[in-house]
UniProtKB/TrEMBL annotation:
GO molecular function, one term: RNA binding
Protein name per its UniProtKB record: Small ribosomal subunit protein uS5m
Chain intervals with Polar residues compositional bias: 19-35
Gene source species: Hortaea werneckii EXF-2000
Pfam families named among the record's database cross-references: Ribosomal_S5, Ribosomal_S5_C
Function: Component of the mitochondrial ribosome (mitoribosome), a dedicated translation machinery responsible for the synthesis of mitochondrial genome-encoded proteins, including at least some of the essential transmembrane subunits of the mitochondrial respiratory chain. The mitoribosomes are attached to the mitochondrial inner membrane and translation products are cotranslationally integrated into the membrane.
Length: 354
């Protein structure tokens, strides 16, 4: 009996403890407020207010559109002001246009803007204000044409090779003009082409130093050709260095009839061998792209080339340049042999052989 009473009492105490734990408030571990304490927004619903405004506006439009009768006629003062600006034919067209416009369109389209991007002044936009509006396209075109004519006139009055104050003075270009004796216009007409570019690494005790290597050619397409190398950490500096060196190293290239070379020449740089051969008129430059760029920059139009061994780009360009600059001229051969040289093609055939 006592055990049962004890068990029932224990069960009652356990149930009471569970109810007290469940009713205890729990601690919130997040920043958001509980739903019970959330309030309604202080401002009304914008969409609902907008819909109410639109509905009231629609009722106003219907009311104004339902009214009959013409618009308010012009006063005498208004007619005098309009007559000062428009002709009688234009006034007639204005009246007919106003009669063709319905009241509904006037109410919906003729109201002032109320948005944030509306203009701060009331205007019919008939005239252009230079302080507010953009300039007219016709006026802008006229100004551009006048500026071009002025620049062309100034260009005619300039003396070649003279530095003017309004031109940007490049120290590299100025030094190049002093070293080569050429003017800026002559340097700008030189054909420049970058043929080889790759990344190089120099191993030092401080680590690997990376640089960019460039091999550039320069020629005036009239018998002058040069190659230059440049190496720098930046792409622009390396290209400019190679271009400047190529222009400084320009040498005359002997050309037979200003179109091809004298005979067959061969040059070797490293493991690359380049063999160049003269060709008749109209043959063209039939060679690989590197030698083709060299021939075009030098002003050669009939040339054949072979590279039987290594085709390393850098060595091929250097070997081709060496072959073009070390040609054996007929004048040198005649002087070495003590003979008089006569071009049979020019003397006996008048140049018409092929």
């Amino acid at each position: 009996m006592n055990s049962r009473t004890y068990q029932c009492l224990s069960c009652r105490l356990r149930d009471t403890a569970r109810q007290s734990v469940q009713n205890a408030p729990r601690r919130q571990f997040h920043a958001s407020t509980p739903r019970s304490s959330r309030r309604k927004p202080a401002y009304p619903n914008v969409r609902q207010s907008l819909m109410e405004a639109q509905s009231s506006r629609a009722a106003e439009v219907e009311k104004l559109a339902s009214e009959t009768g013409p618009l308010r006629p012009y006063t005498e003062r208004e007619l005098q002001l309009l007559a000062m600006r428009y002709t009688p034919e234009q006034m007639k067209v204005i009246r007919e246009g106003e009669q063709a416009i319905s009241r509904e369109h006037l109410v919906t389209q003729g109201r002032l803007r109320g948005d944030a991007f509306r203009p701060t002044y009331i205007d019919d936009f008939a005239t252009i204000r230079p302080l507010v509006d953009k300039p007219a396209r016709l006026a802008l075109d006229d100004a551009l044409e006048a500026q071009k004519e002025e620049q062309a006139q100034q260009q005619k009055l300039r003396i070649p090779g003279v530095q003017y104050s309004n031109e940007e003075e490049d120290p590299h270009m100025t030094r190049l003009c002093q070293q080569t004796g050429m003017t800026r216009d002559q340097i700008r007409k030189i054909r420049i082409k970058n043929l080889v570019s790759h990344r190089v690494v120099n191993q030092t005790r401080m680590g690997k130093i990376q640089s960019l290597y460039f091999l550039t050619i320069a020629g005036n397409q009239d018998g002058m050709l040069g190659i230059g190398e440049g190496k720098a950490a930046e792409d622009e500096d390396g290209r400019r260095q190679a271009m400047m060196n190529a222009i400084r190293n320009m040498k005359p290239i002997p050309r037979y009839e200003d179109r091809t070379i004298y005979g067959d020449v061969e040059a070797k740089v490293g493991a690359s061998i380049v063999q160049l051969s003269a060709r008749p008129p109209g043959f063209g430059n039939r060679c690989q792209h590197l030698i083709f760029e060299l021939a075009r920059a030098a002003g050669l139009s009939d040339l054949a080339a072979r590279t039987p061994r290594s085709r390393n780009k850098m060595n091929v360009v250097k070997a081709a340049f060496q072959a073009l600059t070390t040609q054996r001229l007929p004048e040198d051969v005649s002087k070495a042999r003590g003979r008089k040289m006569v071009d049979v093609r020019k003397v006996y055939y008048g140049g018409q052989v092929y």
